[in-house]
Amino acid sequence: MRLRAWGLVVAFLCLPVRAAPNLPSEDPAWDELRDAIAEGRIPDPLGGVQSLGADRVLAGSSRGGALQGWWAAPLDRAILRAFADDEQDRPYSLPLRERQLAGFVATSCEYREGRPCGDGAGAGIELDSAAGYSDLITAATRLRLAGGSEAFGNGLAVDRAYLKLEYRALLLQVGRDALALGPSVRAAEMVSANAVPQDGIHAQLHPVALTSWLRLSLFYFLDRLRDPQTFSGTLLDCTRAQLDFADRIQLGGSRLLQLGGKGAPDYGGFWGWIEEHFGRNRNAENNRLSFDLSVRLPELRGGRVYYEIAFEDTRHRFFNMLQYDADHLVGIEVRALRLGAWRRLFIELQHTGWVSQEHSTFTTGMTNGGRTLGSALGPDGLSLWARADVEIAGATVSPWAEWLRFVSDRYGSDEARGVFVIAVGPIEHRQRLGADLQAQLALDWRLSAGVFGERVENADLVEGATRFNAGLRAALTYTP
Which ranges of 15-174 does DSSP label H, i.e. alpha helix? Predict the structure, then answer.
């Protein structure tokens, strides 16, 4: 009887139910969806919000299928991860150039959705579960059990837990989940895959047709940022709108508003919070504004070019503001190369302003869980990143390279001149090389792995100091 009971438990955990939680960003189905969009086979369903239910992404695939009535997937996905890194987690704020921003520069940590990382070694398992009713209601969780050296965190953590209500183009979600905004394939300026999953309320209108050639999408969230924060319990809200023109041109805009928390300047309660969206009180809130443009060229081998600009401050001297204050991101992707085994190409050039994501009152800046919400570069950084996807024997190998520069200049500002340099400091240079691997081992099993090496010149902004960093990771995913 006892063996039979255990057999029933195992069978229940492995029920072949295709649940409808949001599809994790590491799932290869995302590439299949984005390839189809790039080649003009389907309209873009995202609206600049890089999150979508698995049922929508997998519709029409062998893994898809309509959900009927009440359903449950106690084991929707299991991921076994292992990491080993020998690198310095270099803080943004250094004695030579202090920053009002929490967080650090570390290759192993960038755009990993806040997972444990850094110098040392560790391993862990992530278990996804979901239940719901048809595709209207979904409750999903991801539990992570990790161990290893100090940086990797020991013990059990709730990585994600949310309740989602979705009907046609409308979505309302409450809880903790990962999120990224904007057109970038990697390094978004406002909200990227760099920070830990967010705790809050999301409301979304998926793209809806206004005319035969124009679609509109809207998105809003209100989150409680996770410590460390200057004021524990600080709130962050975001409003985003996007217009899609003829499935080729996308124009979007986002605004972040950070305010409140224990001991923070009083913003006037509910009505003060409303007024902050239409005015500015520099002592009570932190604003960040962005605009993005994406142009799709399916005839050019599934090509797309995009640009995003974000402002920490706005000034009367417009060109000075573009030079010093603004963050810029330019990207090119080609998703249908088909040059032998070479399938995709990605290039991104990014520059961040002198006070990017910093603030004089909220001195931990635009961060969540100690990681920057937008670019992992932090202030005064420059990055050129490129990656190629090559398909070999059923596996995808992705070699990549990145060149970075961090400036330690000191600045002044006034109304007459705008921002100007008052002292030139050392420049830290970083050269990174790496490769990632994705391989489907069997119907339900997938292996992903990565390795990187980095050379750092003028490390910590100290002239002549040189460091070498390296790391590797592996993940085995089971998706019944």
Answer: 29-38, 54-57
Q: Which pLDDT tens digit goes with each residue over 247-287?
A: 999 999 999 999 999 999 988 888 888 877 777 665 688 99
Domain-embedded: residue 170? yes
- 134-148: pLDDT as tens digits: 989 999 999 999 999
441, part of any domain: yes
Distance, CA of 471 to CA of 445 (rounded, Å): 24
Half-sphere exposure of 377 (CA within 13 A, CB side): 34
0.85 cut: is pTM over it? yes
State in Å, rounded, how far the first CA of the chain is from the last one: 26
136-154 b/e (C-beta count within 10 Å ≥ 16 → b): eebbbbbebebebbebbbe
Which domain CATH number covers 95?
2.40.160.130
SS3 labels along 324-370:
HHCEEEEEEEECCCCECCEEEEEEEEEECCCCCCCCCCCCCCCEECC
Please check whether residue 109 lies inside any domain of the structure. yes
Residue 29, SS3 per DSSP:
helix
Tell which wins on pLDDT, 64 or 357.
357
- pLDDT computed for residue 57 by the predictor: 86
C-alpha to C-alpha distance for 272 and 97, rounded to whole angstroms: 35
**Domain total in the chain:** 1
For residue 38, pLDDT over 50 is answered with yes
Tell me the three state secondary structure of residue 141: strand
The answer to whether position 131 is within a domain reads no
Measured from the Cβ of residue 222, the count of other Cβ atoms closer than 10 Å reads 15
Is residue 163 within 8 Å of residue 132, measured between CB atoms?
no
Which residues span the domain enclosing 284? Answer: 83-119+165-478
What is d(CA 191, CA 219) in angstroms, rounded to the nearest whole number?
Answer: 13
- In a 3-state reduction of DSSP, which class is residue 180? coil
